[in-house]
Amino acid sequence: MSQLTSQQLSMLAGRLQDRGERQSSDLARLLHDQLGGLLTAAKMDVSWLQGRLSQSAEPDVRQKLVQLEAALATAMSLKRGVVEQLRPALLEHFGLAMALQTAFEEGCRRAGLQLDASVQEDLPRLPVAFAIAVYRVAEGCLANILAHAQATRVTLALHADGGQLRLAIADDGIGMDLQDPRIAAAPALCGMRLRVARLGGRFEIASTPGKGCRIEVVVPLPTPE
C-alpha cells in the first residue's frame, strides 16, 4: 500500500476536524435538550416533594431530599459546562468577539492570571464554521497556557483590518524550545496550524525558554454572501 502524501494527510485531518465539530454539535444539542429536560423535571419533582412534607416528617427524609436537590444542581451545572465546551453558546448567539473575551476572562480568573485584552467588538458577521475554527485555535492556546506556561499575564488581541482577521495571544511564562521536534510535532500545535491553513491563513509562533510565548494568526475574512 502506498503511503499517503502530506496533502492527503492534511485533507484527512481536516475532514476529521469537521466530523468532530459536527459530532460535538449533535452531542451538545442532545445533552441540552434531553438530559437538560430530565434534570429539570427531576428538580421540579424534588421541589414538589419538599413542599408537601409536613413539619413532622423524619429529619432523615428531609436531609435526603436536600442532598438530592444539591446533587441535581451539581449535575445541571456539569451539564452546562460540558455543553459549553462542545458548542459555545456565546459564539453562536453573540459572535466570536464576546465568546473569546468571555472564555479568556473566565479562564484567567480561575487560574489567577492577569489578562490584557484588546478585542474589536464590531467584527464583521462571520460564518459559523469560520468563527468556530478561529475560536478553537484561541481555545487551544489558552488551554496550553493554563496547563504548561506557568505564566502570570496573558494578552489577547482580536481585530479585523484590511480584509483580514488578526488574532494574537501571548504569555509571560516559561516559554518553549521550538527546535525541539517533540514540540514542533505536538498534536495541539499541529491541529491549530491545520485549522488556520484550511482558512487560507498564516500561523506564526515565537517562543524561547524563559521568555514566554506569542502566537499570531492572520486569516482572510470570508467574502460576504
A few lines on this structure:
Helix content is 60%, strand content 16%. The protein is built from seven helices and five strands.
Describe the protein in words.
Helices cover 60% and strands 16% of the residues. The protein is an alpha+beta fold and 225 residues long. The protein has a five-stranded mixed beta sheet with strand order 1-2-3-5-4, with helices on one face. Helix 1 runs antiparallel to helix 2 and helix 4 (96-111) packs parallel to helix 5 (128-149). The protein is elongated, with a radius of gyration of 22 Å.
Give the SSE layout.
Layout (H helix, E strand, L loop, with lengths): L5 H47 L6 H28 L2 H6 L1 H16 L2 E6 L8 H22 L3 E9 L2 E8 L9 H4 L2 H12 L3 E6 L5 E8 L5
Parallel strand pairs: 1-2
Antiparallel strand pairs: 2-3, 3-5, 4-5
Helix pairs in contact: 1-2, 1-7, 4-5, 5-7
List keywords for this structure.
225 residues, alpha+beta, 2 domains, five-stranded mixed beta sheet, elongated
Low-confidence parts: none
Radius of gyration: 22 Å
Give me the secondary-structure category: alpha+beta
* Helix content percent band: 55-70%
Number of strands: 5
H/E topology pattern: HHHHEHEEHHEE
State the CATH topology of the largest domain: Heat Shock Protein 90
Write down the domain tally.
2
Terminal Cα span: 43 Å
Q: What is the overall shape?
A: elongated
